[in-house]
Amino acid sequence: MSSSSSEAASQKLTDDLALAQAYAAKGQHKEAIVILENVVQGRKTILGKDHMDTFVARSILARAYASAGRLKDACSLGEKLVKEHTPGRGTEYMINYIRVMADLMSVYHDLKRYKEATDIGGQLVKAQTAIRGEDDPDRLSYILELAGVYRSLKQFREAEQLQLHVVNKRKQLLGLSNLDTVEAQAKLASTYADQPTRLANAAALKTDVLDMRAHLQGPQHPDTVRAMASLAVTLYNQDKFEEAVVLEEKVVGFYDIMYGPLDQRTIRAKDALARTQLHLGEFRKAMDLTLQTKAKSKKGGFFRRKGTES
Predict the structure, then answer these.
(1) What pLDDT sits at residue 224?
(2) Does 76 have pLDDT greater than 90?
(3) pTM to 2 decimal places
């Protein structure tokens, strides 16, 4: 292939890569994957398997597999990229390689391969720290995701330590009135809520999160309403049914308007409200609400002993 032909072919692959990313951004992952597989094969042929551009295309393909729910394919390709890792290839390569590790940690987590997720997550955080330092926003996000893996393992102490680190760092760097700080606090509160002995801590922190979301995003923002529903769950688990029902009634009202009465989020909110009403002895209200939503399965409010996070 002549030099001009090679350049034209390379440019065509670059254009195709941009097109695939546009499809992926619109959620059209199947279309993106078809194009990306051709781009990867083309770059292998023209540039070689070890070329930086080929590596980038393969990493994007792995991400597309994951987004399409093809977790085994995403895992297989991600593991190949990690296995082929060659140190000393420069900062640009390491930045892309770190992203590959982050994607693979997420895939391992989704596949419930928690040991592999914590192993790659530890390497990921160490590598990101070496390149960007301890205050890097991406590093803090990776730590939060790693904490989520520990939470899935029910290793709450490890999860709390990581989440507290991020909360404190974001308070220092961004301040309390910042949504990234609030998000870290919400994740820490959820870890507290997983532990019966930490429900009081969970309720206090979830109250702070709700207040801050209402201030920053508005009282009717979906994130604010979700925070309200989350706090209601914790109050219910503390047997504070009077406080929980006030919040749950508000959540149902918001969800009815936001999503409509037949949306599953609205139905779950009504189910939670009916469950709490039952504990308060409001049997007629609970029955009427349950009949409205036809929530009669074993996942319904009459059968669950404890509330769960939505």
Answers:
(1) 98
(2) yes
(3) 0.87
Q: Compute CA distances 112 → 52, 72, 107, whole Å.
A: 31, 12, 9
Q: How far apart are CA 186 and CA 221, in angstroms?
A: 16
Beta-carbon contacts of residue 240 (< 8 Å; ≥ 6 apart):
none
Alpha-carbon gap, residue 216 to 219, rounded angstroms: 9
DSSP states of 65-133 as a string?
HHHTT-HHHHHHHHHHHHHT--S-S-HHHHHHHHHHHHHHHHHHHHTT-HHHHHHHHHHHHHHHHHHH-
Residue 205 to residue 90: CA distance in whole angstroms:
42
Query: Per this entry, what is the length of the chain?
Result: 310
Instruction: Provide the 8-state DSSP code for 198.
Output: G
- Please tell me the distance from the alpha carbon of residue 58 to that of residue 79, in angstroms, as a whole number: 11
HSE at residue 144, side-chain half, CA atoms within 13 A, is 22
In terms of Cα–Cα distance, which of 239, 208, 240 is closest to 224? 208
